[in-house]
Amino acid sequence: MEVKRVVPSGYCKGVVNAIKLAKETRKQYPDEKIYILGMLVHNSFVSDELASLGIVTLDDSFKSKEELLDEVNDGIIIFTAHGISQAIKDKAKAKGLRYVDATCVDVLKTQNIIKERLAEGYEIIYFGKRKHPEAEAVLSISDRIHLVSNRDDIEDLDLKDRKLFLTNQTTMSYLELKDLIDKVLELYPDTIVQKEICNATSSRQEAISKLVDCDLLYVVGDSKSNNTNKLVDIGKKQGIRKVLLIHSYKDIDKNDLRDVEKVYVTAGASTPPLLIDEVITYLKNCS
């Protein structure tokens, strides 16, 4: 069995920067309480590593960011790589909390583009995942931003005679984005489109689309990670016979390796390199 790593895969610059900021904050304030408002990046191994440094991740799918912030009365708050609303920043200041903003530069870029278009009088059609922190941060900017996740959402819009601008969450699938752009332009042909899938996401997706003779593709990452899930979707749409999402080598079922001649390993942008290396080593020992 031949085992190959897909290049590129794993950590992106935004994830590296966010983790670096969190660790530097701990070094700078060794005795302070430090909290992260949500998962810093969507990977439980990263959260566990930060927990070992005494950095507490506040994450509850049943609570809003504001409700989570209500639980903190002192210490330092770290805002995640996915972005945060100005209202949350203002609330943290009002509570007398210090904060560190680990928002990815690509996310900030998209937010700034949206703000510029809003100032020019545009309504924004935003392609993103519902309840994802990046999308929630964008939606908090203005009520003139309309979230769409599929073609049905576009059909439900009523934006005739409006100046329209379409952009997207940075971690979406380029195949889905193309399909949605086609639908929007069909209904609103004068819409200005600016694709904002970040380079890390697009390069990882494109690498999968170029795989040849792949019998099995392992995608290493957390099921909460949108960019990781999109790698799984891309692999399936490319017709790869088996595409499996795993958190680590411990999730590998040797039964899946039967009759497999060539296996590829890729990983989401929030997946630690060590996890990828362990998967590849394990598979090579199986061959």
Please, could you describe this protein's structure?
- The protein is of the alpha/beta class and 287 residues long.
- The protein has three domains: 97 residues, Cobalt-precorrin-4 Transmethylase, domain 1; 91 residues, Rossmann fold; 88 residues, 3-Layer(aba) Sandwich (Cobalt-precorrin-4 Transmethylase, domain 1).
- It is built from eleven helices and twelve strands.
- The strands form three sheets. A four-stranded parallel sheet has the order 1-12-10-11, with helices on both faces.
- Strand 10, helix 10 and strand 11 form a beta-alpha-beta unit.
- The termini are close together.
- The mean pLDDT is 96.
Number of domains: 3
Any idea what the CATH architecture of the largest domain is?
Answer: 3-Layer(aba) Sandwich
Any idea what the shape is? flat
Secondary-structure-derived class: alpha/beta
Q: Mind telling me the CATH class of the largest domain?
A: Alpha Beta
Share in helix: 40-55%
Q: Round the mean pLDDT to the nearest integer and report it.
A: 96
Give the CA-CA distance, first to last residue.
5 Å
Uncertain runs with pLDDT below 50, 5 residues or more? none
- Strand tally: 12
Largest sheet, spatial ordering of strands: 1-12-10-11
Number of helices: 11
Order of SSEs: EHEHEHEHEHEHEHEHEHEHEEH
